# Entry
Amino acid sequence: MQWSDKISSNNTKSKILVTSRFSLRGLGIPLQMRPLRKDDAITLLLHFVRPSGAPSHAFLPDRDTLLQVVQGCGRHPMAIKIIGRDLRGKPIEFWQKKLKQWSEEGLSILQTDTELLTRLHDSLSVSEEFQRIKEFFMDLGLFPGNKMIPVPALFDMWIERYPQVKNDIYAMTHIHDLTSMNLADKVVRRRIGSDEDNYYENHFITQHNIPRELANKYSSEQGDAFERERLIIEINGNDPPEWWQQNQPQQRVDARVLSIFTDQEVTPDWYVIQAAQAEVLILNLKTTEYTFPGFIRETKKLKVLIVINHVHRWFTKFKNFELIIFLQTLRRIRLQQVSVPCLWESKNLHKLTLYMCEVYTAFENSSIKFPNLVELNIEYCKDLLKLPDGICHIETLKKLSISNCSKFTELPQEIGRLKKLKLLRISYCAEFEKIPESITELESLSFLDISFCLNIKKLPDNIGELRSLTNFNMSDCSISDLPAASVMRLKHLKKVTCDEYTYHIWEVIKGLIDFELKVETAKGITLNWLRSDFEGDDEDGITMKMDRDDYS
# Structure
């Protein structure tokens, strides 16, 4: 929704209200509409349940029931309007039936109220803007509703599947399109630093069940379950989906994107499918142990593997992780909240992301055999102590990021062998103390981030050899002095982010160099990062929270 108050020079009191499902430019100050707050949602529900003129003694349920209804509606005004009119004047049993359908019977609001589905479907279908991002919208339905969806997981899919999505920057524009149309709820991002390096590992979006059901509705229109582009398989216990053909010895599916949901009770016996066309496999887990499905041996086209454990009280352990060695076409792997037993050999892997994983066993007992790896991201892996020396032999590596790994202590001494490395991030690693001298041999390094490594006390004496360095973040380290003569040789350095203790030193250096340099402090950044990066606002329905004691 957008206001425009500069309409006529002759009548300054005139106003025009312009509404749109996506952001408009040049029409005054935009007002982005979000889901209603709880009290406002209840007020709106009451407006339709008991409109003006209704007798004061007309039945109304208690506040807790009203709250459950508006939450089931996603605090979406259109949904509240339709449900409110449907429940107007009805006894309590009708309210209770509605809530039971949503909770105990597992039905969504779109399944119990087809009018809402029809209105939303028709509204979006005529939108040219929606048609442009429809495929990306349907991909959101591959993840659980009302849960944090890792933005990089979406990027991994989109870059490999859609030719127009060339890199993370292109992908992020589609994230903004989805949120501006309220098809995704919000973007949650890290509180520190900037996005100049286009680092989105700590970005998440959420999607309420209503748009998720709508996304899956559009997917289902592509054909029956065995022919459509995207296929979601939800296994509760060992009960297959309703559409599963029980008498078939093996189900063949044509989906290019396969998303499997499993709970704690599932066993591998149900995995009797052929998915030879699958390019993306997403495993959404709620289990302490998991057996990789045997059919992955035959997924000869698989490019992206995403494994997410959605219960943050434990790490999922794999029973047959060795099956991953058959996935030689894989280009991108993201493992989240799982225990990684070993590293494997993969000739085509370009990107590996380990997020909140147990990795000690893998890094201690395995050698890295990814000869074509371009990007390695390790986030919130509390048991990571060091990287194996073998990483220095990956000649293709361009991005190495280790962040929020509280026990990480050292980089390999031969890190300087990574001649193509452009970005090196070691941030929020409290035990990391020393930067190897060989770092000065990284001739392609343009971005260096050592922020919040509180035990780093000095920079390498020859840091000026980093002739390609353009951006340097050294905020909240324990560095009290700089090798000024060496630093002055960083002719391509454009920006430095530091704390107040070294700011004045950099300002002195600025006066002595003959190239333009921007120096800024990390204003407003404190060590409260340990508490709040992922704690969502309950008013916006975000429920994911991490136990930060595990990462302090």
Remarks:
- Residues 101 and 107 are 5 Å apart (CA to CA).
